Amino acid sequence: MNSKGIIYLFISLFFLNFTSIIAQTVQEEKQPLAVILKDLETNYNISFSYADETVQDKLVVLPSPDLTLQELLNYLKTSTQLEFELLDNRFVVIRTINLQTSSPNTVEHLPEIFITNYLTTGITKTKTGAINIKTESFGILPGLIEPDILQTVQALPGILSVDETVSNINVRGGTHDQNLILLDGIKMYQSGHFFGLISAYNPYLTEQVNIYKNGTSAQFGDGVSSIIDMQLSNTINDTFSAGIGLNLINVDGFAKIPISKKLELQVSTRRSLTDLVITPTYDQYFKRIFQDSDLTNNQSNDNNAISKNERFYFYDVMTKLLYDISEKDKLRFNFLNIYNNLDYEEQSRVNDVDEALNSKLTQHNLAAGISYTRDWNNKISTNAQVYLSNYDLDATNFDILNNQRLIQENEVYDTAIKLDFDYTFSNYFKLKSGYQFFETGISNLEDVNNPEFRSYIKEVTRSHSVFSEIEFISENRNTHLKFGGRLNQIKKLDKTLIEPRLSFNQRFLDFFRFELLGEFKSQTTSQIIDLQNDFLGVEKRRWVLSNNKDELDTANGETHIPIIKSKQISGGIHFNKNKLLVSAEAYIKDVKGITARSQGFQNQYQFVNANGGYLVRGVDFLINKQFTKFSSWFSYSYSKNDYTFEELNNGESFPNNVDIRHSLTFAGTYNYNNFKLALGLNWHSGKPFTTPEVGNEVSNGNINYNSPNNANLDDYLRLDSSATYTFHFNDKTRAIVGASLWNILNKKNVTNTYYTINSDEEITKVENLSLGITPNVSLRLHF
């Protein structure tokens, strides 16, 4: 039997064993109501809305799947002594029986959701165009046994990563630095652990995530491609809850600790095992991230052998303190610390002398914030927030053979003040306005000892922004309109920018919805690459600020970095009936003000300073069908993404480095009681690259290239699977075991190709490969 046959046999036995275990489960055992509700949402295509304390400590026997929806609600009411009110045939409000629903002060407003269980449980699409992910009720996705936030984002149509990392997420053809990542309103500059393979944010303390690809609220600046808005729990619980987990990469834990009725502490921490034990998962991750870096490149020759001893680890700590001063006044404190560390020792014998030098790389994001919210009455509320976000990337690289030491540092200090005002005119009209002040300072240091060279550049910008938007919801909830604008004033750059925003959603013919989204956006921070081997070749990108320099300053190496501006409009039609969703959305996005150094060129434009833009036209298509215990979806995205640089390619457009013309996903999930299974296929066309001229590859020591991005890599194909099983010990304690396989077929996908030339003017083709077959297992305990 060949290797593929063995893999298929292993998968089949794996799934059959799990199914056998499930078949022996005693269905009559009582289970926590909160757990059962998640399964019922999938089975009946409904959405439950309730306060956590309402369903707390409620145990019920899993109802028969043959019950009608009304019979189900009657059964739950009898079993739990709670009120289950069905709204709009899809939304169910759960209240205590003695709650006076006629009182206007106790009306519970449901979120404006029009698609529930989008792909899987816990993912919904709202009428504003945003995708909402609730991590607590998150189901399962292929290849994931835990709700990794930034990996989950890539399952959505129009979002992928051309190199499989969470530090390079491409939303509708944009680069990763064009995504605004927020944690409780605080801007994040580091997104991943293991230099991009794992999200840096603990999902078990993050309550929900909102993803905006277009039609963004006017309260958000930056992020010309997308907003990823992560929010921690903001409600004080009466009971203690916690969890610990272990997988083949890290160990983690979280706790929500009620100190009093007005005070609660939330804390989570995670620490890698990579410097303590070598696992198959770590081995695959190491090969993927450190390929073609200083750590793995062969620097030895016949007379000088170099041995290396590396040590790598990461950790993160997240805390939030909630203090309810009164029923109307709430105070919140946030703290986050993300850290990655790599160091390795190089030992070599040079000129009969033994030498050992230590190279290292650290990546650190520290953030802290405080916010105060006051509900003046049932119509008016205000919120004030102050935060600091500090990002620091440091590297010391020793080259023993050339007797050279290189120090590099990229540091960001970002402080902000935000003031928001919300006014509810009625059940149909809402107003949101505010003022924001940002001060961002970014410094870059480069220090070489041989030959002696030192460059230190620091830029600081201050911006003032005001915004306002009005939201309208019709009485029958069929029409939703949000329209507003944002005014940004950047004094240093002498720029005033006006940014309109639009989100419109209209239901028609009962089961159809039309969606129109539009926005103008801008940002003054971006990432560039000076040299591909910067920061040991692992974290090549460094943050920079837009400036007002019009041409290259040869004295200190500065260049003109403009403000990035984008315009986008999209329109979509969504059909949702009988657990069948068919969705199609077309869009046009025009982005200007990018620099060639921010795009990661590895061809004739690698060392060129030029400013330009890109234009993306595309369509995202999705079919999602849900059955009683099974959900499947097929998504397809087509986009044409072209650069235009007046100074490059004679001003003619050429394919973007992330021009993925076709992208396809086919996946399914299966839920049966406490068992969850997922299997999915990901395919997309290869990214562009530039080939040398055949027969005239080298001239004067340089590579002669064809026209930029004239060729494409081979198609990318990956098959993933995952499964989890939950054991309930009592109403508060449960254990979850999981297993996953990434790239089951062990496909050797090439994620990047470029060419180098040596001293003998010989060309070498370099290919970066994706992750090979990568197993992972996990064990979690919630109590």
UniProtKB/TrEMBL annotation:
Transmembrane segments: none annotated. InterPro entries: Beta-barrel_TonB_sf, FecR_C, Plug_dom, Plug_dom_sf. Residues 150-223 form the TonB-dependent receptor plug domain. It comes from the Bacteria. It is found in: Cell outer membrane. Its main location: membrane. Keywords: Cell outer membrane, Membrane, Receptor. Residues 30-93 form the Protein FecR C-terminal domain. This is TonB-dependent receptor. It comes from Gilvirhabdus luticola.
